[in-house]
Design brief:
288 residues; alpha/beta; two-stranded antiparallel ribbon; 8 strands; binds zinc ion
Length: 288
């Protein structure tokens, strides 16, 4: 395969199938042109949504997995290459899932230190008195799915750190797959909220949630990390299989395989409804 931009060896094909016509377009990229294309899209996301300005204090929530790690690299590169005087703090939260998160946190520490950004780590045991593994062991037979506990407690931790640091923005690794899964979950509840929009401001909050990679797929994030030698952890959390979103994710991936581009169409359709002025619901899911 040949890159359609420079003629080099292609590593990625962007396909798009028309929702109406029997046509499908494609464009192939080599590793460099793919990276350039991703950087351009994220730069456009940041600039057109005014995500980053001089004087901003930004808390980047980074798990050590591919999406949030790539988000940190792209956000920080954008700030430096555009001379934006923003302070970026890197937060990693250890929920206490065996040694899985401990290894994630150490990796995030290394990324932050190499970039010269302040690193903050928190853990559930100190913040909430129990690890996620302990909560799992004590969960009643009719208890919630584990991600409910995890997202709620992690969100509280993120908001607490943001308040103590006095940041005005929280950057998340929410990607296109996450955003569409969130939309499906909302529709099942009969709710349309604005938490998956590129910028989300909870009612009455001085802090905005920004999602610089909201329109990048998980596959694109993973490939960007790989071709740029950005070390990430690729293991799945042992509890994620419990989450309904895991099933939704698999179904959406099948839909995207058969109809390339449909995830972005779904996102744009849902975002249009959210922008139409539906009431916002409070805070924490954006910290997922
Ligand atoms: Zn190329």
């Amino acid at each position: 395969m040949i890159c359609d931009v420079c003629g080099g060896r292609a590593v990625f094909t962007r396909r798009e199938r028309s929702l109406v016509h029997v046509t499908e377009s494609s464009k192939r990229f080599c590793a460099k042109c793919f990276s350039d294309w991703i950087r351009e899209r994220v730069a456009q996301n940041i600039s057109s949504n005014t995500m980053l300005q001089d004087g901003d204090r930004v808390l980047a929530c980074v798990s050590g997995e591919k999406d949030s790690t790539v988000m940190l690299h792209l956000l920080d590169d954008y700030a430096r290459s555009n001379g934006i005087g923003a302070e970026v703090f890197v937060l990693s939260v250890d929920e206490g899932i065996g040694d899985y998160r401990t290894r994630c946190v150490e990796l995030v520490r290394q990324h932050a230190e190499r970039r010269g950004r302040d690193f903050i780590d928190r853990n559930f045991a100190d913040e909430h008195g129990a690890t996620l593994d302990v909560i799992f062991g004590a969960r009643p037979s009719d208890g919630y799915r584990m991600c409910m506990y995890c997202c709620t407690l992690r969100g509280k931790t993120v908001v607490d750190v943001a308040r103590k640091l006095g940041v005005n923005k929280i950057a998340t690794g929410l990607n296109l797959n996450d955003a569409v899964e969130h939309a499906v979950m909302c529709l099942m509840k009969g709710v349309i909220d604005d938490q998956s929009l590129p910028v989300h401001v909870p009612p009455g909050s001085p802090v905005s949630f920004i999602s610089p990679i909201f329109n990048l797929s998980g596959l694109e994030c993973g490939l960007f990390a790989y071709v740029n030698s950005i070390e990430v952890l690729n293991e799945d959390c042992r509890y994620c299989g419990e989450h309904l979103r895991d099933d939704i994710s698999r179904s959406l991936n099948l839909l995207e395989d058969a109809n390339p581009g449909i995830l972005l169409s779904l996102y744009e359709g849902y975002a249009a409804l959210a922008r139409a002025g539906q009431p916002s619901s409070p805070v924490l899911a954006a910290a997922e």
